[in-house]
Amino acid sequence: MFFFSQFNQLIIMNKNIDTKKIIISNPLKLDCGKEINNFPIAYETYGELNSEKSNAILVFHALTGDQYVSGKNPITNKDGWWSYVVGENKPIDTNKFFVICANVIGGCMGSYGPSTINESTSEQIGTDFPIITINDMVNAQYELIKYLEIEKLFAVVGGSMGGMQVLQFVANFPDIAKLAIPIACTSSHSAQNIAFNELGRQAIMADSKWENGFYSNYKLNPDKGLAVARMAAHITYLSEKGLQEKFGRKLQDRDSLRYGFEADFQIESYLRYQGSVFVDRFDANSYLYITRAMDYFDLSKQYKGNLSDAFKKTKTKFFVISFTSDWLYPTSENREIVIALNSIGADVGFVEIESDKGHDSFLLDVPSFLKTLGDYINSTYKIINERRI
Amino acid sequence: MFFFSQFNQLIIMNKNIDTKKIIISNPLKLDCGKEINNFPIAYETYGELNSEKSNAILVFHALTGDQYVSGKNPITNKDGWWSYVVGENKPIDTNKFFVICANVIGGCMGSYGPSTINESTSEQIGTDFPIITINDMVNAQYELIKYLEIEKLFAVVGGSMGGMQVLQFVANFPDIAKLAIPIACTSSHSAQNIAFNELGRQAIMADSKWENGFYSNYKLNPDKGLAVARMAAHITYLSEKGLQEKFGRKLQDRDSLRYGFEADFQIESYLRYQGSVFVDRFDANSYLYITRAMDYFDLSKQYKGNLSDAFKKTKTKFFVISFTSDWLYPTSENREIVIALNSIGADVGFVEIESDKGHDSFLLDVPSFLKTLGDYINSTYKIINERRI
Fold first, then answer.
1. Class (C level, CATH) for B12-188+300-388
2. What one-character DSSP code corresponds to residue A189?
3. How many helices and strands, by DSSP H and E, does chain A display?
């Protein structure tokens, strides 16, 4: 389905993905200095917007996520990435809430990104795509909210890079969201975060089929490099303990070592599988651009080193969630957000969920997380509605 | 310099590296089932063997180490990898001790490995080289000790993979070493350890110039893949805190972001540098083989799941050293070795050194480590000598 906003002039087309889509005609000034306009934002919605337009929740996706939060993802034919959280009778209950999720700009699921086709050349934009930031992503999604004619969001929610977007959204638009839930995230990428992302980028760029980002012109795909990048990232998504408990030194479909370079161990087989399925659904250039946006993210620096100042103008209620075994965005980094909010007397709740599943906990069936998140959202919604009455 | 043992028949030649070298004529049965003979072991020695032959210390090197423990490494023209530990008036004082270090088999500094030239084809052996294990490495080095006509070693010492060799050496040859010092190591590779090594191997094999390991036949070098592998490993050698303190989000020679994929951050520049200098000194196939040996290492499994049994026959005195910020081989894994030794009443000391420098601590100027190691070695040497008198 395609929805076009008024007055747009369609200069770029995305590959054919079955999704809702609008073209943003308002010029968007990017942090890099360039300006984009007439660009597509692909999105999905779940549930119904109520007559008061008071039940909308904007969900932000993570690095390799997309707009298919719940239900079947038409590309992978698997459940949406947050099916444990969003859906009928789920913590974010689509019987009650109107959930919106947009593919970030820089992504590869229909929003403006390096795999967008330039109509004049019929080729992908590739690395002619401008560098984008978390700030740019959020500003683009604000255009979608305006297009949907929603003045107030009940909540903005997201994990990992989605959490960074939550923070940036509230900083940029302090009057829009009543509730903000950043999960398993950070207010700025650490040296180790940057290091792992750079590793992934180098793996992609090392692939001779990358062709400086113009691989589509040559009908090539740097899939081996992208798979290595994914493998590296995957290690960071799981905890050491979780890996040891799940895989340990178990062999894959065999009783003894093969004395070769095949995947003898289950963990090897698992990583190779994760790499191979990823390249079927994700664009290598998008991986470069989105990781770059994450590395550039430093909300404190945007406010001259004072993270609290990012939230000074907002009355948004915050609920920060971290996981004990997340070593990518550990509790200590989530706590910095809480401390910044506390220092200005903001309304902020904070919980560290016990889980062995590492950073991936926010995507998985972690009952205490799902219950905590659901209870908080639903009780807050009730309180806000009661106040209004 | 080349030294050949008696009765050898030289069938293989290594590239021309200035090092001491012997050819092992005794057949060595490998764990993979194959047998090798007439193969070279390259090594270096430091200090003088005393008349009683009681002052010899065998040092085992780590994954990317070599025989150049101290002094200048003729390949890199930099200091030997353990110059903080081994040398005149250093913790392992070469005025007092005779230090031996051999390049492991599988390596690329003159010992039998995938870059060894097969004389009949004049090409590198490449992936025709057999899979080797830590056990094989240690058995090959035992041949060197015999060649040097040393019956008793005062000590066997090594960090990381060197520590694994220490453990395996004592298990295999319980009567040879009086003192064993495994540092920052493990008795078996964890799932996360295997995952990082597999990531490195996949990066190498993803390089189109790898050519299934026969790159030298095509005058190619999978240097980009090897650089990515090195970058991945390097992240695991440093602690999150150490990275943050050293690099944080500091930019490289600039005041503002470039909005591109160049190395804006110092950490990116550092990793790229580490990758680029590594490929000048290390062979991609050796990286595959040695990481495989590490992944296969499981001393407990060799003894039917009872690690203590590996040490039942020895009276060797042990000193186990770990580092607080080492997340590659954390203290918990080193402690398992201590527990196994304690359970059979072995003579074992254990210290966890406070350091922010991560796994790399054993290679760096960490004064408390250097003092602890030196004091232990020297006082033990004194006690053993006094006993003999």
1. alpha beta
2. -
3. 10, 15
CB-based contact, A229 to chain B, within 8 Å: no
Going from N- to C-terminal start, the domains of chain B cover: 12-188+300-388, 193-290
Are A136 and A102 a contacting pair, CB within 8 Å?
A: no
In 3D, which of A77, A65, A104 has the Cα closest to residue A18?
A: A77
Name the CATH topology of A193-290: Rna Polymerase Sigma Factor; Chain: A (1.10.1740)
pLDDT tops 60 at residue B299 = yes
The number of C-beta contacts closer than 8 angstroms across A and B is 152
Is-same-fold flag (B12-188+300-388; B193-290)?
no
pTM above 0.90, yes or no: yes
How many residues are there in chain A? Answer: 389
Contacts of A128 in chain B (CB under 8 A): none
pLDDT of residue A2: 35
DSSP B213-282: GTGGGGT---HHHHHHHHHHHHHHHS-HHHHHHHTTT-BSS-SS--SSSS--BHHHHHHHHHHHHHHTT-
Q: Do B188 and A249 touch (CB under 8 A)?
A: yes
What percent of chain A is predicted at pLDDT more than 70?
Answer: 95
- Selected from 3.40.50.2000, 3.30.360.10, 3.40.50.300, 3.40.50.1820, the CATH number assigned to the domain covering A12-188+298-388 reads 3.40.50.1820
- Which residue in B has a C-alpha nearest to residue A293's C-alpha? B259
Judge: A206–B228 Cβ closer than 8 Å, yes or no.
yes
**Would you call A189 an interface residue with chain B, using a CB distance cutoff of 8 Å?**
yes
**A251 to chain B nearest CA, in Å?**
11
For residue A200 the two structure tokens come to: 């992934």
Asked casually if ipTM beats, i.e. exceeds, 0.90, the reply is yes
Q: Are A333 and A167 in contact (CB under 8 A)?
A: no
pLDDT tier at B15 (50, 70, 90 boundaries)? low
pLDDT at B3 over 70: no
